[in-house]
């Protein structure tokens, strides 16, 4: 799969508060022969999918991004839009689904955005994990590992956005395997634990921070009890929330692309704090 | 068949709340049920009885739409959507459940938190 | 108001719902003054630069809402217009010296920016044809340089702010963006710094004192005999 060019949607967090996620994702993809090209012009996807049947305005932001993907997809001759942040994946995929299923709503949205071309409903939204599994393959990933990783016991934390609702899930919502397979392909030990599909409590970090701190503590404790020394996520909000746990010596949380970058020997893409986390795990054993 | 609150929820979601037989799986799966004042299955019960007090609960603002209840509901009712419909009813009345200018530690939060909070908790 | 000059075409406009006949080709501002209105607010430079005379209008048989500056837009037959002299917003107090030039700084002072739904009403309302929504989106993702570039020509007329369903106060946010950009991100003008240093060291004090003591006739002579490149 050499020289595969795919357009991707970064989302607001990746461009500032979660820069490390984007940097490692692009570097790791490049190492595997996938060039991720940022959409030329994009806006915040909106993050929350509005479930009301008559909602129109709150879908506009996501449809605008799908139109941008449509414009760029024509140039690349490829209609796949990759997302890295799982909340963006969930929002874009669900809005895409609803406008494809409801032509009346799509027409309403297209007519409101009279300054844009019409969205025709032919973009496919996929997540980076799916790119690595289906378009690159675990064998290629195994080849690129340049470091012994078996001391790292990584607990995959899926959160909710990648697996629910069922219509947009990238794996079985109750018993997912996609992250475990990736961790094992890197040579590390995957620690499956029951809370891997729990919700991190999302924006409750703003509504009532205690809820988030308690949830994070619960998830951390569970991962540790099952033998993990690090938690691996796909979402900047899960990353932040899990790190709010106030437990002493609680295991840290990192992005899955940071784990991959470390395995591939791409230390220059990692932040000093993340490198410290890896060094600490490896010297303690 | 529907009156009052159950009618409003039907209009917003297309869900027939009377299909719920109160098995409780939703409340058992909810990761945030410990912080809620009314658990999900009771919320659905209150909608069945058209009890408008459910609109004043904390639950409708805490629910993070993780959809754990929805994937496990044996009758495919989608409790998360019902709870969100109640929140949307309140939102459309102009209720703001958070003062955006009084958020602690805003500088360290990823934008996702602020944007999600503003979409869910402000009108 | 005096006799109409022969052969001047008149058009019908509706100022706050009242019908007036005004000469074609006048700007909205001149047309309103022709009709007898006297401006004491909502007027400034008359040159399209100060943003005071924001106007919104509709045309006959057209539901679309148009915006413009009264001093720059010419009247058309069937125009229904009103002025928005001020879009209300309190300017927040901050000290630029104590702020960091990041997107989260702006979001912590104007958290309502997170409510942006990308509806594009602001861009459609802008009389300067700026990409307002893109500037707000750039702030959301922390790209202050891009935001500053996009909002450079903003005249703070307030039309975007009054149209925004998310209640964002664009012109205040943009002012902070430009201040932070100018102070922390933009390249410094080295020659300016050096010149200021020279002034503070007194390099030009003697000449300035000489000038201060001259009479106006000596100044005129100095001006007329200055070196001009031919």
Characterise the protein shown here.
The complex is a heterotrimer of chains A (285), B (123) and C (230). Chain A has 285 residues and is an alpha/beta fold. Chain A is built from 12 helices and 8 strands. In chain A, the strands form 2 sheets. A 4-stranded parallel β-sheet of chain A has the order 2-1-3-4, with helices on both faces. In chain A, strand 1, helix 1 and strand 2 form a beta-alpha-beta unit. The longest helix of chain A has 20 residues. Chain B has 2 domains: 89 residues, Orthogonal Bundle (Fumarate Reductase Iron-sulfur Protein, Chain B, domain 2); 27 residues, no CATH class. Chain B starts with a helix and ends with a helix. Chain B is mainly α and 123 residues long. By secondary structure, chain C is an alpha+beta fold. Chain C has 3 domains: 74 residues, Beta-grasp domain (Ubiquitin-like (UB roll), Roll); 90 residues, Alpha-helical ferredoxin (Fumarate Reductase Iron-sulfur Protein, Chain B, domain 2), CATH 1.10.1060; 30 residues, no CATH class. Chain C is built from 10 helices and 5 strands, in the order E-E-H-E-E-E-H-H-H-H-H-H-H-H-H. Chain C has a 5-stranded mixed β-sheet with strand order 2-1-5-3-4, covered by helices on one side. Chains in contact: A-B, A-C, B-C. The interface between A and C is medium-sized, with 18 and 18 residues.
